[in-house]
Design brief:
Structural class: alpha+beta
Radius of gyration: 35 Å
Oligomer: single chain
């Protein structure tokens, strides 16, 4: 009579033996099971055998997740990213010692049995019966490979991982049937190759190549005997036999592997003894995963590339589908980042704004005509420590940026000027432009709905000396607030909305600009540096706007090319309008508020901007072949840049031309070094007669003359008078734009 448990019935091991007999008698080879000695088996023997026949015959093997490599435009590595650090290598790129070591310690009869090792099972069952527990398993390498496939397919889902590793008879049955299929289809050599590429070796390393690099900083094909034995020993328990944290345990395990290799005659006993006597010599390479490891301050660009991948439908219909492809990895992503431009931008930032300063700076450079992002950097590094951040100040919120972008101040004025020129305003347009004036009673809007000034508020210029009349050329160079308020009063908000939409200008939240005169004249709305740089590139490209792009090509692990998003170009304004703006903005850097930013060796143009209470300072400028935006300020918008030290230099008041301007100049100079210097298509803009005569008229005025009574209405817009910074403290040699309020 069979021996029964004290509670009645067969022991767990005896039930397993009974199941094995049923399996064989049923014609289903179901050996190779290491079962718990007690407890539920999960399925009754009869039901399990019947279930075996219903298991699908084809094992779906997902592609192994691997590391993705992100490259710059010249093929240099920016960073590697992965959910699992793995590099798949073929059989002949794995050391023969490694191949022999893993077989010797995990499945010495691998080349002698089929999918399951009946002798091993009987031996394990007998030993487990004697011990009353699970003291020995009998899973073959093929079965272990199948289990790893289930784990790989589960990914990072804890519930699926638990299902893939649960100690139940049902899971073992599935493994067995799939193991039979794998043996028939792949053969021993391919199974061993797949196993060595899929299994976990601890320290975040999946597969033998990643493990070899992690522990010894060498390729798997170069592993020596004692190194291969060490790695083979880790597989059974990566935490227990971790050589980094417990060298003693790892050495004991390595020596067990070496002796096993000698016992099965893979190596001689003398070789085993020599290897055992060799101390473990690790050369550990720390995991380098993610954009935090990017070179040349390109962590934020790296993260932007990831955001593009996860948001663009070209990579999958849903975010979940795109995320699956990203996590699977194995991609080589070549980007638009120019290493020369990136290094120049980052060096300029470091020279002018310190990481520990109260304020930060962001620089973005793009290529007109292609939309290629060639540089993206900021003074607060990508990271999790003090004075570090994961917020990319250069981009919109949806791509990892700040919630709202940053108010752009007077850098918005060229958009209004372009809209007015498109509506037929001449470049010689003159407005009275007094120092101080009431806002207009109303401003024409879209759909026949005007903006109405109900608060009767007053606007003024930065300096009392800024008294018109002014023509557009001088008003742009000096960034005269009252001039542009009068311009939008006549132009209306709708043409500005239409022009900026064609130039890709949106709020930092990704939403369209608000139809408010303060936003469409004096830049009171938050916008990202990338949007500003790319919009100004439209001027450089003679009126044709191109969407920004960061990815040149993507190649999969098997050499296939993936479709990538391409820039789309469309006309935003006629060429003459763009040429006129270029001519006007050349005046800003030649003799206006942006003189400190002007380049000496090539045609260039740009505009300064400084917002309310000097919380933000900007310079956005360009040459015919590169456009760049520089923002300086506090991400929280809590710092007023007055009596402040930035980059080791004290500033009584910060202006767009005085801090962002020099950053732009240095960044552009280095980025364009050795590049062609094409000219703009200049437009002759004659000086208006009123402009010529105004200095004579001003000389004859008494103090206060020419300044209108604030109680007298002037067509314009209404925002609080203290919301606007001004153009330029020229008496101190500092340039600056003016801006609007922070909402």
């Amino acid at each position: 009579m069979p021996k029964k448990r004290s509670g009645g019935g067969l022991t767990g091991t005896q039930q397993a033996a009974k199941f094995l007999g049923v399996s064989v008698l049923s014609g289903a080879v179901l050996a190779g099971i290491a079962l718990p000695a007690a407890g539920a088996l999960g399925l009754a023997a009869k039901g399990t055998v019947e279930g075996f026949d219903t298991i699908p015959a084809n094992l779906k093997t997902p592609p192994l997740s691997q590391r993705t490599t992100i490259l710059d435009a010249e093929g240099g590595q920016i960073a590697t990213v992965y959910s699992r650090d793995r590099t798949v290598v073929p059989f002949d790129e794995i050391s023969p010692y490694m191949q022999k070591a893993i077989v010797a310690i995990e499945d010495a009869r691998f080349y002698e049995h089929g999918a399951i090792d009946l002798k091993g099972v009987l031996r394990a069952l007998n030993k487990n019966a004697q011990s009353g527990g699970v003291s020995e398993g009998a899973s073959t390498l093929t079965q272990q490979y199948v289990k790893n496939v289930f784990v790989e397919e589960a990914g990072d889902d804890p519930d699926k991982v638990a299902q893939a590793t649960q100690q139940t008879l049902g899971r073992k049955i599935r493994e067995l049937k799939y193991a039979i299929q794998v043996e028939e289809e792949l053969g021993k050599k391919k199974i061993l190759e797949n196993y060595l590429n899929i299994t976990f070796f601890g320290q975040q390393a999946y597969g033998v190549e990643a493990a070899s690099q992690r522990y010894f900083s060498k390729k798997a094909k170069d592993l020596k005997l004692e190194e291969a034995a060490l790695l083979a020993g880790i597989v059974q328990s990566p935490s227990r036999f971790d050589p980094v944290n417990d060298s003693e345990e790892a050495t004991k395990r390595r020596n067990i592997v070496l002796q096993r290799m000698a016992d099965v005659r893979d190596i001689s006993q003398a070789e085993a003894d020599r290897a055992k006597a060799t101390p473990i010599e690790l050369k550990v390479s720390k995991p380098k995963n993610g954009c935090i490891t990017a070179v040349n301050g390109a962590g934020f660009f790296c993260d932007y590339v990831r955001q593009v991948f996860l948001t663009d439908p070209v990579f999958g219909k849903t975010r979940e589908a795109r995320l699956k492809v990203w996590n699977q990895g194995g991609l080589t992503i070549r980007t638009t980042l120019d290493p020369q431009a990136q290094a120049s931008a980052q060096n300029s930032i470091k020279d002018h704004v310190h990481q520990t300063d109260k304020v930060a700076s962001a620089v973005t450079l793009v290529q007109p005509g292609t939309g290629k992002i060639v540089a993206m950097g900021q003074s607060k590094p990508y990271g999790f420590g003090k004075n570090e951040t994961q917020i990319n100040y250069s981009v919109d919120y949806g791509m990892g940026g700040s919630n709202y972008g940053f108010p752009v101040g007077s850098t918005f004025k060229p958009f209004l000027a372009a809209a007015a020129l498109e509506q037929g305003k001449p470049p010689t347009q003159v407005y009275p432009s007094p120092y101080r004036m009431p806002y207009p009673q109303s401003v024409p809007g879209c759909n026949g709905k005007p903006w109405v000034n109900s608060a009767k508020e007053v606007l003024e210029n930065e300096n009392e000396s800024e008294v018109g009349p002014y023509a557009l050329k001088e008003a742009m160079a000096k960034s005269v607030n009252t001039y542009f308020v009068q311009m939008i009063a006549e132009t209306g908000t709708c043409p500005v909305m239409e022009t900026t939409a064609k130039m890709g200008v949106v709020q930092g939240s990704g939403k369209p600009l608000p139809e408010l005169p303060s936003a469409l004249t004096l830049g009171s709305t938050g916008i990202s540096p990338l949007v500003m740089a790319n919009a100004y590139a439209t001027f450089a490209n003679r009126g044709t706007y191109c969407t920004p792009t960061a990815i040149e090509s993507i190649t999969t692990a098997d050499g296939q090319s993936l479709k990538v998003p391409r820039t789309e170009c469309s006309r935003a304004m006629n060429e003459n309008t763009a040429d006129t703006i270029n001519t006007l903005l050349r005046g800003v850097v030649d003799s206006g508020t942006g003189q400190q930013a002007g380049l000496q060796s090539r045609d260039n143009a740009g505009k300064t901007g400084t917002t309310d209470e000097r919380r933000n300072a900007w310079f956005v400028g360009y040459t015919p072949n590169m456009s760049g935006a520089v923002w300086v300020g506090s991400a929280s918008q809590q710092v007023k840049m007055e009596r402040i030290t930035i980059g080791g230099q004290y500033h009584d008041k910060v202006f767009g031309g005085a801090v962002p301007g020099p950053i732009w100049k240095a960044a552009m100079t280095g980025a364009l070094n050795g590049q062609p210097a094409p000219p703009f298509n200049s437009v002759h803009i004659p000086d208006a007669q009123k402009d010529k005569d105004k200095d004579k008229d001003r000389d004859r005025q008494k103090p206060g003359d020419g300044r209108p009574d604030p109680q007298q209405p002037w067509p314009g817009i209404s925002i609080p008078p203290d919301l606007i910074g001004g153009g330029n403290n020229r008496g101190q040699g500092n340039g600056g734009g003016n801006g609007g309020n922070w909402p």
